[in-house]
Amino acid sequence: RDGFCHTGDSDKGRHVVCALVTDAFLQFSLAQGNDLITPRPEWDFAGLKAGDKWCLCASRWKEAHDAGVAPPVLLDACHEKATEIISLEVLQAYA
Fold first, then answer.
1. CATH number of the domain where residue 63 is located
2. 13 contacts 36 by C-beta, under 8 angstroms
3. By Cβ atoms counted within 10 A, which residue in 38, 65, 72, 85 is the most buried?
4. The whole model's pTM is what?
5. Is 85 a member of any domain?
6. How many other C-beta atoms can be found within 10 angstroms of the C-beta atom of residue 21?
7. Which structural domain range is residue 62 located in?
8. Least confident segment among 9-18, 29-38, 83-92
């Protein structure tokens, strides 16, 4: 990992939004069926906590935005493909 969100053909979820996750977002994601909190050592995943940086699926971030719980973004670390799903103006408002 190099601090930037990258994507490619194998990235089915388009993990292109670099976010500083919040408790509200983590709980929202959990309620949507995506547990980002629980460690999964078998996947080399330590689990996330508020304040962690993570590349999120653009569609999940947009869902969180629509629900009022989108976390802040690190705009310079987002991939440009994020703007195919979320407007640049909206991302800038969360930067």
1. 3.30.56.110
2. no
3. 65
4. 0.90
5. yes
6. 20
7. 15-93
8. 9-18
Distance CA 57, CA 62 (A): 9
Query: What is the distance between the terminal CA atoms of the chain, rounded to a whole angstrom?
Result: 21
Q: Which two tokens stand for residue 1?
A: 């990992």
Structure tokens at 91: 């991302």
List pLDDT tens digits, range 43-77: 999 999 999 999 999 999 999 999 999 999 999 99
pLDDT-based confidence at residue 1 (cuts at 50, 70, 90): low
Q: How far apart are CA 90 and CA 19, in angstroms?
A: 13
Query: Cα separation of 17 and 54, whole Å?
Result: 8
Question: CB count, 10 Å around CB of 65?
Answer: 18
Q: List the one residue out of 69, 30, 68, 32 whose CA is nearest residue 47.
A: 30
